[in-house]
Amino acid sequence: MGRKLNGYGTETCVTTTSTLAQSQARTLQRHMIGHGMLILLVGLLAGGGLLVSLTGGLEVWPGRLLAVRVPGDSAAWVRFHIGQLLNAFLIVMVALILPVLGVALTLARRVGWLIVGTGWANTLFYAAALFAPNRALTFGGNRFGAANGASLIGLVPALVFAVVSIVAVLVLAAQSFRRPVWPATQDRGGI
Fold this sequence. Notes:
Layout: H1 10-55, E1 57-61, E2 64-67, H2 74-101, H3 105-129, H4 149-176
Antiparallel strand pairs: 1-2
Helix pairs in contact: 1-2, 1-3, 2-3, 3-4
């Protein structure tokens, strides 16, 4: 049984608005997944840096190593490599769960872009930590070493987005216990 349209096409307008919202939601998801894939690529490339840091160079022929020096130690490259993989998975996971949680489109955009920002802030943090004797963990020196410009570059966005990500996760957790608004409650026209 379908709904009857009034003379002004109200049902058509609602369906068009619903379709537009779904299209915008899909666009948000695609953009988030795209950013996640770029961060994943950074993590995979960091795996190459990890290999070079472990071996001291690139093997151009079996048994022939071309010496290459990279900043940071192997442990820092492990953190950079694994951290980016996890950041990418976080962004993609949030992109995929937004419709399941029924997050309203406006809130989905806010949370989505905050999570993307978190991923890039963490990418900058891990990269800067390769050049910071103190691992970009503090503004001043700490037990790992002295602070430098890389410490500041890595730490400021990481601190800001650490708070942002906690808020975003709390919003998503709260949303998971609410009645869905979008798209789970939309009329699918008999589907």
